[in-house]
Amino acid sequence: MNIQALLSEKVSQAMIAVGAPADCEAQVRQSAKVQFGDYQANGIMAVAKKLGQQPRQLAEQVLQHLDLNGIASKVEIAGPGFINIFLDRQWLSQQVDAAVSDERLGVARQPAQTIVIDYSAPNVAKEMHVGHVRSTIIGDASARTLEFLGHNVIRANHVGDWGTQFGMLIAFLEKQQNEQHGDIALADLENFYREAKKTYDEDEEFAVRARNYVVKLQGGDEYCLAMWKKLVDITMTQNQLVYNRLNVTLTRDDVMGESLYNAMLPGIVADLKAKGLAVESEGATVVFLDEYKNKEGEPMGVIIQKKDGGYLYTTTDIACAKYRYETLHADRVLYYIDSRQHQHLMQAWTIVRKAGYVPEAIPLEHHMFGMMLGKDGRPFKTRSGGTIKLSDLLDEAVERATKLVGEKNPDMPADELKALANTVGIGAVKYADLSKSRTTDYIFDWDNMLAFEGNTAPYMQYAYTRVLSVFRKAGIELTGVTGAVNITEDREAALAARLLQFEETILQVARDGMPHVMCAYLYDLAGLFSGFYEHCPILTAEDEQTRQSRLKLALLTAKTLKQGLDTLGIETVERM
Ligand code: ARG
């Protein structure tokens, strides 16, 4: 159910009937205050201005043509020409009935688009670091949300699997294999990289071999390719464990690393030259962009091929955008990459558009996010200043959650407690990130994220179990609620209206890629449920009809919480 769309349609029809242009916007929004009703239409002022009329008079006329029979119980003009709409309780009751018996909770499938989502994108032979956590978690919530709406989502894990560092990495892997006579686990990728670099800097013979391997790898040498593949495999096997732990939907099949685009790069450089976009400059191939100025105020030069023939990160991203449109047939491409790469993407896409590789009608969207900071407001690091290993972070989350839920459930069997601690601990890390607007930096704080109060995973997971416990207490299965909804109380009406705004919320998340909007909605919903439960007795309702009606509201609340958390990738439990 999309109430906003329904009311927008009705109000704009009425506006058109009194002379507004056919493309006028009703601007129907959820009202900010109860006294303004459930929804408010704000579009009349702009139209009145255009038509040279008094807004209030125009609003009177619109009201005469506005047919909300059966939907609204009251419609009134407010302020300079707003229309306040109060939803009819009978209508709300029917909508709740319809939503609760629909497996999609009344959320319509959208006309399916192919949407490519670029997220996670760790680098080979390096530990996944906190910067990749946000991309992974927020990107995955976005993928789940769009998939729920019926889109064809292509998860693109743009792994950093190419570059000159691979000569050094291959040489070092070889050295380790020789010394250890066999396969190595690369359990500690960060150390592997660091030691490889150290050896490269200190050992000239090693460095020569490493440089030779880069050339051979680029030339397609079989041995080097096999070693390269080994590095990619080891890294992605390890990352896959992290994805699984995080309940992130990425799989090995989603890996579309930088190397995928290698074969396209020479053609792109030649094409950009032929189109007059790229020129030779001091031996390199450069695209000068008027849109960006360098320090001297001249058009900025973006290098796409170095003097030595090597290609750059930008060249790959140009090819990658082209590929996503041409080969994957994307209707929309979302990139979950930290905000420091914004200029890089804008430059690559400016070139992509100029070259006509991706038509303007296909949106390329940078869904950027800020940094993850420690409690002191500085970049999130270990005490000794090193990068925090994601697996260590998750271990700590589960450890802390074990203590937390153990205290609350002293009698819970050990297996159940273990599973619960995992759900709560991992959920807390994810939810903490998801619940904050992604555009700003975010402070990682254990105490906040594991609190049972406030907009946190434990609170939301607990809220869900509380609704379920109502059914347990009533001795009734979720499937055993039979009667019709009949809303009579204010708190019932408020809860029902909010429940029916689930679709509007999902659509907003889908449009902006901002999962915190869903978190805020679910948090609000849980609060409304508490108020309803307190003031509208369910188990001791005055009659059976009322009891059934309220159980149904509780049922839709449970289903909405679960489905909402599911679109975020947050798991729920039956009891905690
Ligand atoms: N591997 C890169 C990094 O760690 C992120 C890649 C993001 N995706 C892209 N298409 N550039 O910073």
From TrEMBL:
Keyword tags: Aminoacyl-tRNA synthetase, ATP-binding, Cytoplasm, Ligase, Nucleotide-binding, Protein biosynthesis
Pfam family, one: Arg_tRNA_synt_N
InterPro entries per the UniProt record, alphabetical: aa-tRNA-synth_I_CS, Arg-tRNA-ligase, Arg-tRNA-synth_N, Arg-tRNA-synth_N_sf, ArgRS_core, DALR_anticod-bd, Rossmann-like_a/b/a_fold, tRNAsynth_Ia_anticodon-bd
Major enzyme class: ligase
Any GO MF annotation of the entry: arginine-tRNA ligase activity
Cited SUPFAM superfamilies: Anticodon-binding domain of a subclass of class I aminoacyl-tRNA synthetases (SSF47323), Arginyl-tRNA synthetase (ArgRS), N-terminal 'additional' domain (SSF55190), Nucleotidylyl transferase (SSF52374)
Domain Arginyl tRNA synthetase N-terminal: 1-87
Stretches assigned to the DALR anticodon binding domain: 460-576
Assigned EC number: 6.1.1.19
Subcellular location: Cytoplasm
GO cellular component terms listed in the entry, alphabetical order: cytoplasm
GO biological process entries: arginyl-tRNA aminoacylation
Motif 'HIGH' region, chain ranges: 122-132
Major subcellular site: cytoplasm
Record's catalysed reaction(s): tRNA(Arg) + L-arginine + ATP = L-arginyl-tRNA(Arg) + AMP + diphosphate
Gene3D superfamilies the record matches: Arginyl tRNA synthetase N-terminal domain, HUPs, Isoleucyl-tRNA Synthetase, Domain 1
UniProt family annotation: Belongs to the class-I aminoacyl-tRNA synthetase family.
NCBIfam families assigned to the protein according to its UniProt record, in alphabetical order: argS (TIGR00456)
Record note on quaternary structure: Monomer.
HAMAP family reported for this sequence: Arg_tRNA_synth
The name this protein goes by in its record: Arginine--tRNA ligase
Organism of provenance: Winslowiella iniecta
Lineage per the UniProt record: Bacteria, Pseudomonadati, Pseudomonadota, Gammaproteobacteria, Enterobacterales
